[in-house]
Every structure is written in structure tokens, then in C-alpha cells.
Amino acid sequence: MAPKIGYLLPTRERIMEGRPETGSLLELAARAEGLGFASVWVGDSLLARPRHDPLTLLAAVAARTRKVMLGTAVFLPALRNPVVLAHQLATLDQISEGRLVLGAGIASDLPNIRAEFAAAGVPFEGRVGRMMEGLRLARALWTGKPVNWEGRWPVQDGVLGPTPYRPGGPLIWMAGSVRPAIERAARHFDGWFANEADLGRWTQQWAEVKQILREAGRDAGGFVAAIYVTLAIDENAGRADQRIDAFLEKYYGQPAAVMRKRQGCYAGPAAGAAEYLQGYLTAGANHIIVRFTGEPEAQFAAFDGIRAQLG
């Protein structure tokens, strides 16, 4: 599988800046497609990290683009009613003509995220079971056949219309870097979505994923290994470090040193960024989603040369 590079739209950043208008975000999505990015992504949060609704925004992005994959990085299915969500995703997949990828996860255990779940009326402790059952129900509804479901969301002869453009529904990439998340991704979904900070650990985890795939009788060749990284590209390494630290602390409300240990981050010259990303590609990653710090146009210009080095 040829490696691909995707671009994360700065929806959270724009809300923090007091710039909620979406026109510039749609322009960035179209610009990313024109520059050759393979995918465009949007984050998800209701109240913990306020930003645009990802599915609504991606519908607009789908109408402005023709080729790029469209994805969520990452979406929290447990916060939504799966029948409603299945309908929304099927419609979005039709709008995009099969370009949708649902990057999904269970959310970190942090006070503001627990508060978000409480505000949505969803028990935080049961979020894994809710997510897994909800996605199974969505997939059943995406067949277009009558569904009878006994569980958290009882359904009697329910038939969903429209069904997704892509037979079987959108691809689902499961996020996480702990063993249970890796197991869920490899056994039940179409890809594994990580943001691991340490290349050695990511490489070990990818070996675990492939082993689980083999045990489950699944084809590792068609399975996606995706990684989400944050880049601050600047020929002045010290300035790049300051910028990424300020970005992480403002975005997450936690010390930059803590976030750098948890998430894949690079700050420095373009040549070093290419080497950093190539490490993941060599280790087996086949889709890298990049989040930039700083003004997008300047980062686009810097990243154009990096992509050329990556082939």
C-alpha cells in the first residue's frame, strides 16, 4: 500500500482565536487537495475542546473537493446515538461518493472529557461498550436490510436510507496505543490510528497489530496503519521548539513536556521533519496525518519540499 499524507484542518485553533467562520477552512481543504495531500481531516469535541461539528464541516468539504479522502481524527461515537449517527455517516458518504473514513476512539480520561460525557448524558465508564455496540449497529443498518436489535438501542425492523455510497459503509480506523485498543482495531476494523510519540514503541505496537491480524485470519496488506503527528517547521530549531510548546499548552491546557511524551511531535528544520516522518514510513505506517502549528500557507510551502523527499 503506497504511503499517503493527510492534512488536519485547524478547527480547534480557529475557535480559540475567535475566528469561527468556515470559509477559510474550506479554502484550506481545497488548497490541501490542490497541493497533493491524500486526505483532509477534522477533529471532534462537544465541550471539552470546542470546535466545529466534524460531520457537518466535512459535508461542506466534500462539496468543495473531488479526490481527497475525508476523515475524523478522531471521532467519539460513544457520545452519539448510533442510529442517528449511522444516518449521518451514510448521507456524508453519499455526498463524498465513498471518500469518508471514520477515525474513532474512546477519549482520554481527563476531567474536562468526563464533564463532556456527563453533559451529553453518556456514562463515561461504559464508553467502550457503547462505542463497540453502536458501531456494530451502524454497520447492520448500512446494509439497507431490516434490522432487529436488542440492546442499548432497541430497533424493530429498522431500514436505513440512504445506505452509504461505499458498500458496507465508511472505513473505520480505530485509535489507541494500549493493548485493548490495538486488539479492537486489528480484530474488528479497517485500520489502526495512533499518535505515539516514540518510534520504537510504535514499531513494536505495529508488530503486535500484524500478529493479531494473522491470528484473526485477516489480510494485513489491506489494513491501514495511520499515525497522527504535530509539526512546527522552522529552520530556526529554537523558535520551532518555542512555537510547538506554546501550541500544545494552549490547545490541551497541559505542560508541553507532558504532551510531547504522549503524542508524535516534531519541531525544527524541514530536512529533519522529512527524516522524522520517513522513520514512521519505513517502520510500516502507510498514512500520516499532519497537524501544523503556525500560519497554514507558510507551513504548506515548507511541507511541499518534505513531501517530495518522501516520494
Indicate the topology.
Elements: E1 4-8, H1 11-16, H2 23-34, E2 39-42, H3 54-64, E3 69-72, H4 82-96, E4 100-104, H5 111-119, H6 127-141, E5 147-149, E6 155-158, E7 171-175, H7 179-188, E8 191-194, H8 199-215, E9 224-233, H9 237-252, H10 256-262, E10 264-268, H11 270-283, E11 287-292, H12 296-310
Verbal overview:
- The structure is a single chain.
- The chain is an alpha/beta fold and 311 residues long.
- The chain has one domain: Luciferase-like domain (TIM Barrel).
- It is 47% helix and 18% strand.
- The chain is built from twelve helices and eleven strands.
- The protein has helices at residues 11-16, 23-34, 54-64, 82-96, 111-119, 127-141, 179-188, 199-215, 237-252, 256-262, 270-283, 296-310, and strands at 4-8, 39-42, 69-72, 100-104, 147-149, 155-158, 171-175, 191-194, 224-233, 264-268, 287-292.
- The strands form two sheets. The protein has an eight-stranded parallel beta barrel with strand order 1-2-3-4-7-8-9-11, surrounded by eight helices.
- It is globular and about 60 Å long.
- The two termini are 14 Å apart.
Features:
311 residues; globular; two-stranded antiparallel ribbon; 11 strands; 12 helices; TIM Barrel; single chain; alpha/beta; 47% helix; eight-stranded parallel barrel
- Strand order within the widest sheet? 1-2-3-4-7-8-9-11
According to CATH, the homologous superfamily is: Luciferase-like domain
What's the helical proportion of residues? 40-55%
Question: pLDDT below 50 for ≥5 consecutive residues: which ranges?
Answer: none
Mean pLDDT reading: 96
Radius of gyration (Å):
19 Å
Query: How far do the termini sit from each other?
Result: 14 Å
Main sheet, how many strands, which sense, barrel? 8 strands, parallel, barrel
CATH-scheme architecture: Alpha-Beta Barrel
* CATH fold topology: TIM Barrel
State the order of secondary-structure elements, H for helix, E for strand: EHHEHEHEHHEEEHEHEHHEHEH
How would you describe the shape? globular
Structural class: alpha/beta
Give the tally of β-strands: 11
Tell me the count of domains. 1
Tally the helices: what do you get? Answer: 12
CATH classification, class level: Alpha Beta
- What share of the residues does DSSP label as strand, in percent? 15-25%
